[in-house]
Design a protein that fits this description.
It is built from 20 helices and no strands. By secondary structure, it is mainly α. It is rod-shaped. It starts with a helix and ends in a 6-residue tail after the last helix.
């Protein structure tokens, strides 16, 4: 090979070597740049992870408290501390919503932020399992019992707080999936379904149908059904679980101040119950009309049961008078949120006043009869027998309490001084006058005619009892003389006191207005009972067969 050819080959080899070196240099530069970028990315991620770890170490107590929330919520639900469980659940829900909103706003999320989001979501899901499962099941079971108004209103508020908001499409899909699946019964679907409409149906069906059916199917007077329900409510309120929740029901009201607090609780919680039910029924429109009627009737009957419970356990006229005044002041707000029960409650108050007055008169007469039969220390001297006998004969000839006396009575009659020297008769007269004075001050005007008739019958019965004592003894004995003084002198005087206090007719018959009002109240109560029966029958048919539009 010639010399020029060798030189040309060497030049080509050198050029190729230089080109390869340039390519190698470029590749090394790219690799170095990529290495730098990779190291920078890893270093940045490391810094972020280190920063997140340092934050986690600094907030370790908060993270531990967050991880403990599901267990604490479960313990609160199991221990019936439901308000605390709901507060913690609402806190986790707020945290989740805040983290979700922040995640949507940020383009680049650190590993620590992602871990916090995942942690809060898991805690919220665990808390929701306890709230939307066990707590709702316990609330429905508690609402199925006959609870007092404040307890019912409080549980309804807790039920609303426990519901998780769902969109309309999710609610429809959930209901269709659970309610129309062959493997799941309708009752189980109602319990486990967290939707508002299904839980409302579950509450109304499981909590109150049995209560109303017992009250509606009971024969006889409507007050018997109310008394039975009041007894059931009383037995339920004695539960240890409710004592802490209802401190105003731990002891029966024994003073006007405690009674005022008791009525304040009713006045405050009954409208709250109405608002809760109205909020539950608002999305259902006209389809919820039977539920509204059922809720209003339940509020009215529960209120009447509570008041009857107080009336049945008191013998103080001032207590009942304060109750009557408070009910009159409270009936306005209650009538706006439920059925107007003032007329029926007023009749119950009148019956309680008649019962208390009759009991006081009976106890005074029984005490007098026992003392006359077993004690003779109060008898006057034998020298007074003739003069007292003349008083008895004159009074018997002039007036007898058993006569049908429609004639005018003297108004200036006074108790005989000789008779007032006998301690038993003096105590009887004082008890009678004290009773009449209490009735004059505390008894409503509408109850006076009935009180007049009842007390007149009690006075005649007392005279008959003492007349029997008189007939069992010799007519000339001191005992017969003093008993005759009661029958022919003291009893007419007490009857005139009764007439003057009540300003009614001598026979004590109730006026037509009272009878008409009583019949109107009974008719209203019976009509309401029939209406509720029709509503429940139609509702039960729909629950069993399904709406007519779906058939």
């Amino acid at each position: 090979m010639s010399a020029p050819a060798v030189v040309l080959d060497q030049d080509n080899a050198l050029a190729n070597t230089l080109a390869a070196f340039e390519r190698l240099t470029t590749a090394c530069g790219d690799a170095s740049q990529r290495a730098k970028e990779l190291c920078g990315s890893r270093y940045s991620r490391y810094c972020k992870e280190r920063h997140g770890t340092l934050i986690a170490v600094d907030r370790r107590e908060d993270i531990d408290a967050l991880l403990e929330m599901p267990r604490v919520i479960h313990a609160c639900v199991a221990g019936d501390r439901w308000d605390g469980a709901l507060s913690l659940y609402e806190q986790t829900r707020a945290w989740q919503q805040q983290v979700t909103h922040s995640t949507r706003q940020e383009d680049h999320i650190s590993t620590a932020s992602t871990g916090a989001t995942t942690l809060i979501s898991r805690v919220h899901r665990a808390a929701a399992e306890h709230i939307e499962g066990e707590l709702i099941r316990r609330l429905i079971a508690r609402l199925s019992a006959t609870a007092a108004l404040p307890e019912l209103a409080r549980h309804l508020g807790q039920l609303r707080r426990a519901w998780h908001p769902m969109s309309a499409s999710q609610e429809t899909a959930f209901v269709e999936e659970d309610m129309h699946t062959q493997s799941v019964s309708a009752d189980d679907a109602l319990i486990h379904c967290p939707t508002e409409s299904a839980l409302l149906s579950a509450f109304l069906m499981r909590a109150r149908i049995s209560w109303w059916r017992r009250a509606v199917d009971r024969q006889g007077d409507g007050r018997a059904a109310a008394a039975a329900v009041a007894a059931a409510a009383t037995a339920h309120s004695k539960d240890a679980e409710l004592d802490a929740a209802m401190p105003w029901r731990e002891t029966e009201p024994t003073s006007p101040e405690q009674l005022a607090q008791w009525l304040d609780a009713l006045r405050l919680h009954t409208p709250e119950l109405h608002r809760q039910l109205a909020a539950l029924l608002a999305p259902h429109g006209a389809q919820a009309e039977p539920y509204r009627n059922l809720a209003a009737a339940y509020v009215a009957s529960t209120l009447r049961s509570e008041l009857q419970h107080v009336l049945q356990n008191t013998n103080d006229l001032t207590f009942v008078a304060t109750l009557a005044t408070s009910v009159a002041d409270t009936s306005g707000p209650l009538a706006r949120c439920a059925t107007d029960v003032h007329t029926v409650i007023q009749h119950d108050i009148h019956l309680a006043i008649v019962r208390i007055a009759t009991g006081r008169a009976e106890r005074a007469t029984v005490a007098l009869t026992e003392e006359l039969q077993h004690n003779t220390a109060w008898l006057p001297a034998k020298a007074e027998t003739a003069r007292l006998l003349e008083v008895v004969n004159a009074a018997a000839a002039a007036k007898n309490v058993h006569a049908s006396d429609d004639a005018e009575q003297p108004t200036s009659m006074a108790p005989p001084e000789d008779l007032m020297q006998a301690a038993p008769f003096a105590r009887l007269l004082n008890s009678w006058l004290a009773l009449l004075n209490d009735l004059r001050w505390y008894a409503p005007i509408g109850v006076l005619p009935s009180l007049s008739a009842v007390l007149a019958r009690e006075l005649c019965r007392s005279s008959d009892t003492l007349r029997t004592v008189l007939q069992a003894r010799e007519s000339t004995s001191l005992e017969s003389v003093v008993v005759g003084l009661f029958v022919h002198v003291l009893a007419p005087y007490m009857w005139q006191c009764l007439q003057r206090v009540f300003a009614c007719s001598s026979n004590g018959a109730p006026p037509p207005g009272w009878t008409a009002a009583h019949k109107a109240a009974q008719h209203q109560q019976l009509e309401s009972k029939h209406k509720m029966t029709a509503i429940l029958s139609a509702w039960l048919r729909e629950m069993c067969t399904g709406p007519s539009t779906q058939e």
